[in-house]
Amino acid sequence: MRAIVTVFGLDRPGIIARVSGVLFAANINILDISQTVLRDKFFAMTMLVDIGESTLSFDGVKQRLDECAEELKMDIRFQREEIFNSMHRV
C-alpha cells in the first residue's frame, strides 16, 4: 500500500531529515521524493511512500507526522495514494 506525504512551510535546515526520520522509525520506505524552495523562502516537498511494512497503523503514522508538523511549524499531510489521486483527478 502506498501513501503521499506533502510538506509545506518556511524553509530551514533539517526538514527532510526530520520528516524522513519519522518515516524511517515506522519502517516506511520512500519510493520517490520531490522538493523545492520557492523564492528562497518557502519549502515544498512531496513524497510517495510504501506503508505496507509499517510498524505503525495509518493513524499512528499520521499522528507522528502531525507531531512533526507542530514541531517544525509546517503543514504536513499524509494521505492514502488512492484518496490523493481521486482528489487530484482532472
How would you describe this structure in keywords?
90 residues; alpha+beta; Alpha-Beta Plaits; 4-stranded antiparallel β-sheet; 37% helix; 38% strand; globular
Protein architecture, described:
The protein has 90 residues and is an alpha+beta fold. It is built from 3 helices and 4 strands. The chain has helices at residues 15-25, 58-72, 81-87, and strands at residues 2-10, 29-38, 42-50, 75-80. Strands 2-3-1-4 form a 4-stranded antiparallel sheet. The longest helix has 15 residues, at 58-72.
Q: What's the main sheet like? A: 4 strands, antiparallel
Low-confidence stretches: none
Instruction: Tell me the structural class.
Output: alpha+beta
Average pLDDT over all residues: 94
Strand order of the largest sheet: 2-3-1-4
Strand count:
4
CATH superfamily grouping = ACT domain
What is the chain-wise order of helices and strands? EHEEHEH
> What amount of the residues lies in strands?
35-45%
**Span between termini:** 23 Å
Provide the CATH top-level class.
Answer: Alpha Beta
Report the total helices.
3
Work out the count of structural domains. 1
CATH architecture assignment name: 2-Layer Sandwich
How big is the Rg?
Answer: 13 Å
CATH topology: Alpha-Beta Plaits
**Helix fraction bin:** 25-40%
Net shape: globular
